[in-house]
Design brief:
With about 270 residues, the protein is of the alpha+beta class. The protein has 2 domains: about 100 residues, no CATH class; about 140 residues, no CATH class. Helices cover about 20% and strands about 30% of the residues. Strands 7, 8, 11, 15 and 18 form a 5-stranded antiparallel beta sheet that branches. It has a 3-stranded antiparallel beta sheet with strand order 12-13-14, with no helix packed on it. Strand 2 and strand 3 form a beta hairpin. Helix 1 packs antiparallel against helix 2. The two termini are about 25 Å apart. The mean pLDDT is about 85. It comes from Geomicrobium halophilum. Belongs to the flagella basal body rod proteins family. One of its GO terms (cellular component) is bacterial-type flagellum basal body. Its main location: other.
């Protein structure tokens, strides 16, 4: 009975964490470039149950079978697929239209292209959110004020918002002078990137992300005055949320039944005459 109590509790915890993840996805459904998280739910190893000292006395065991020990949410990982592009008409908005990339051998899935960003502490971050702006010094930044990097590894000085950007990121200011080229980098898979909030990701691998500018093996096109939508499938998220609630309630019902049985065991058995 105690084992069943913990199994039901583990199911409730798992569904609660899954619900939190789905809620985060839904809250970012309008965040440009946001990549929806998906969960991996695993079962704890089963226990092999035997009846001891049976069929012959001491030292003889009879096999009963396996006993499940509960489940847990192993991880949440982003779904790196291209979101739809939306025309905004805003000159500082930029979207990456990613071409076909060969699947990686380790993951079986293609990697993803990103913009490079430097945060306020000097850390390198990456994003698909091209909702840029120009600060008072004429530098290209994201909505949090972090600098967007060019191929030289320095913030891009575009002067003002009236700049022009070519398909591979070449930027000319409002006078027609070339001022730099937007950096685009490649990440092999989601396991090497960790979300740090506000649409930013940090690389946890030992090797830095490589620039793909000028590399025909990584086809892409930058589209000015466009934004990449979130890839959150609202209908699927709502269906998953409903299933998570139902699974939570089912485990809650089982747990309450075990609790009532334990209460009766503690209060009633001792009163039997």
């Amino acid at each position: 009975m105690i084992r069943g109590f913990y199994q039901a509790a583990s199911g409730m915890i798992t569904q609660q964490r899954r619900t939190d993840m789905l809620g985060d996805n839904l809250s970012n459904m309008h965040t440009p470039g946001y990549k929806a998280d998906q969960s991996s739910i695993r079962a704890f190893p089963n226990m092999l149950v035997q009846a001891m000292n049976t069929n012959g006395g001491r030292g003889h065991h009879r096999m009963i079978g396996e006993l499940a020990t509960g489940v847990y949410m192993q991880e949440r990982s982003p779904n790196y697929t291209q979101g739809d592009l939306r025309e905004t008409g805003v000159r500082t908005d930029v979207a990456i239209l990613q071409g076909f990339l060969e699947p990686e051998e380790e993951t079986g899935a293609p990697g993803m292209l990103f913009f490079a960003v430097i945060d306020e502490e000097g850390n390198m971050q990456y994003t698909r959110n091209g909702n840029f702006t120009v600060d008072g010094q004429g530098l290209l930044t994201n909505s949090q004020g972090h600098y967007i990097l060019g191929v030289e590894g320095e913030p891009l000085d575009v002067g003002n918002e009236w700049f022009e950007m070519g398909a591979t990121g070449e930027i000319t200011d409002n006078t027609g002078d070339y001022v730099g080229q937007l950096e685009v980098v490649y990440a092999e898979g989601p396991q090497q990137l960790v979300k740090t909030g506000e649409g930013l990701l940090q690389n946890t691998a030992a090797d830095d992300l490589v620039s793909v500018v000028g590399n025909d093996a990584y086809p892409y096109e930058l589209q000015q005055q466009f934004l990449e939508r979130s890839n959150v499938d609202v209908g699927q998220m709502m269906t998953n949320m409903t299933n998570a609630y139902r699974n939570f309630e089912a485990n809650q019902t089982v747990l309450q039944a075990y609790d009532q049985n334990l209460q009766r065991t503690a209060n009633d058995i001792g009163n039997i005459n």
